[in-house]
Input
Amino acid sequence: MKYYIIVGEASGDLHASNLMQALKARDPEADFRFYGGDLMRDVGGTLVKHYKELAYMGFIPVLTHLGTILRNMQQCKNDIQAWQPDALILVDYPGFNLSIAKYVKSHTDIPVLYYISPKIWAWKEYRIKAIKRDVDRLFSILPFEVEYFKGHAYDIDYVGNPCVDAVAKFKRSDEGKADFKTFAQTNGLDPDRPVIAILAGSRKQEVKDNLRMMIEASSDFEGDYQLVIAGMKNLGEDYYRKYIPKGSKVSIVMNHTYGLLNHATAALVTSGTATLETAIFGVPQVVCYYMPVPRLVSFLRKHLLKVKYISLVNLISNKEVVEELVDVRMNVEEIRRQLSAILPNGERRGQMLSDYARLMDILGEEGASSRAAECMLKFLAQAHTPLK
Output
């Protein structure tokens, strides 16, 4: 069958590439055409446009690039019409993808499948109307979404979480099996001192807002620990160094976040997928996310946000497993206090590790991509989708 896939960022590229491999294993004639990235291109098929040409985040960047965004959207609609796939698979990226879904549903008979659903349970709940109207089947990677969508009279499939797959795959790799001494020597670290990992985000603004505070707070522990930043390839090492205070002994390990987490004693982590990955590695963490005008943010969280938590760990567990320092509590003193509590002999460490074990039970076993592929093919077979 012919599959048209659309992703809009690096995480979508990763998850879509794994899904493509799973589809190929079950459909030898699978033919892919996609808006995606390098990982998807490595699997095979035709890359129409790279996600780097689509990734505009925030009000001002979107506004200033609105013409480009609209052109990309129209080109995508035209390309789908011309190619006539057997299925359209959308991966996260709701602002773009829901518009494509609306067009495809109203102009074609192509089934619309959604993998990694829009987080409408946190904000923009009104999008449920568009999903029910334009998406034939939704495949979730967050277990609590099943009940949420059921409450809106829309059935979805929970297929497992791909982060579980990614971490399990890493641990089977040579790097995942290597001891700390080997990892330290390879990355210029001290093999005799334990690590506090600092994951300051994957976007420049996140690093700018969070890194300096995270380093200052954790510097009190440099006598017993080495502080190590998990550097992202897309930002480059020099960008991180701009926000490292003079005299700091912090190190940077580029492009080895999983390797770092595999050996870390504790971590400071910005919100996002990284919080879940850190938990799956069993590393106690403090979630740190600076926001401008913190008192206003506190008010908005209390009165407008639809959920109690911002980190995936707490959302999935439906309890405060990890401390979230987001608004007025995001300051050096509070980060320092919470970090101390999760280090060995700290008062929160044992309970957090116990809660992580429960989290893993909720997430289920690895195999999200395989289950998603099986569910998609089963749905398409039942829908009697004609082969093109």
User: Anything to note?
Assistant: Residues 123 and 143 are 18 Å apart (CA to CA). The two ends are 7 Å apart (CA to CA).
